[in-house]
Structures are given as structure tokens and as C-alpha cells.
Amino acid sequence: MRNMSAVLFAAVLMLPAAVKAGVESFNFRMKQEVCDTVRYEIAYDMTFVKGVWTDKVDTLTEPMRLEIGDRAMRFYSYAAFRSDSLNAVNAANGSNESLFGEYVSWQVYRNYPKDGSFTFLDDVAGVNYFAVTEPVKSPEWTPVADSVATILGYQCRLATAWYKGRQWFVWYADDIPMDAGPWKLCGLPGLILRAYDAKRQYVFEVTGLRNVTEPKPMMYQGLDYEPVSNATLVKEYKRYNADPFGYDRLYNPDVVIVTDDGSGNPLPAPKNIPFIPIELQ
Q1: pTM of the entire structure?
Q2: Mean pLDDT across the stretch 132-154?
């Protein structure tokens, strides 16, 4: 990252107010520690394919955040953060009420806990927590000649590369001299504001940016996560997707799971849920 201290965003992101002063949470049940101070926040919408069926394609759009500090970066679901922060407030107030939703559960850290590495955190069914660490390896980008787009008032250029099994197309802004972007996309002379793979199964679109002037800690939440290889994590995903209820019962044998169609008619337990990860290799 170059000239970080000189970056001032022309487009200001109006972030929602904190849920409660002093509350910084994503999964409030897990041990966490401060890993950096947030200097910049970038908001993205991530639209991704959740499932492909014979008659339809299921897509979801999730608000995401990229935090950039003096050393580290963190990319995570803002929807999950907000839900978990409210749960943390409720727990602190002695309430058993919890908010649940269908949120992106993974998050990515760069340069923490180890410089020059990505650490990918995710949980499977909320019962198994895994951390995959790998060296940061930038994609081998190829600029697309004569490409130009204006995104949030910034002139952007297009580059493309094969990365982790997908062909990616990204628009980056030279006027924002940060080697950063959503997920693990990096290695360009400007901040990545838009990115999508060739099949558009994963699409990232910036929605705002801001300089963080108030004290804001960046939290690392992987202290209690089990270090595993990416192959082990993928195997665990596939175990869960093959039989979600069976996976839950394996770790929570006393829990009874019942599904119906909203009218009291029972539905069969889901099996073989489509598995469409962002990383194909």
C-alpha cells in the first residue's frame, strides 16, 4: 500500500450508527482481540449465487465491509456484524432474545495474525469454527486496453486474471492508491471498486467509502478457531451440504429440527444442497 496517510476519499460513505457505543462484535461468543486501528472503511454489496436448480438460480446480496488499518485488513459481512452486535447487547442486558438470519459467515484478514498472509475464518453450522491461513499471492493481472468506467465519481480501469479457479474482472481506481479490494483480490496500484467472475457467480460493487476519524479498533476473532487446511475446510462444507440436519444432530443430538411449509405440513429434510464456493481451487 502506498501513500496511505495521504488518501482522502471524495465520496463519503454514510455508515449506520454503531449499535451501541463500545460494542465491536461479529461473533460475540468467540474470543477476540484488537489487531489494528481502522483508518478507512469501504462498503461493498456482494451478490452471489447460493444455489442452481433445474428451474431457477438463487442469488443473495449481502452488505460487506473492508476495514483497512495501519498494518492489517479485514473483510466481513456487515449484516452478520450488525446482527451479532445486537445479540451481544441483548446478552449484556440479560436478555435471552437472539436475532438469527441467513448471513455470510466467513471473513478474511490480511497481514494478521501473520504478516504476508491471508487468514480465512468460517464456521460450519455454527458448531465448528475453522481458520485457513495461506501466503498472500496476488493474481497475475492483465490490463484491458482502453477500458474506462466511472464508479462513485472515480475513474477506473479494468484488469483481468485467473485466480483460485475463476477468471476475475476488476475495476480499480488509480486515484485511490491502495493495494486492496474485496475478499482476497489485491495486487493493483489502486483500490478495487468493482469485481466479478466470468460467470458472475460472485459480484462485488462498492457502495461507499470513508476515512475513519474516530477511534475504531479492528477486531481479530480467530483466537478460538481450529487451524486447518483449505482441503479440510472444503471437505467439512461438503459434509454439511450433503445432509445439513444430520450434521447438526451429530454435534447437537438433543436438538429436534422440524420443517414445514408454513401451513403445518411437514417437509423433507434438505439433502445435497448446492456447493458453490468462491474459491474453486
Answers
A1: 0.84
A2: 97
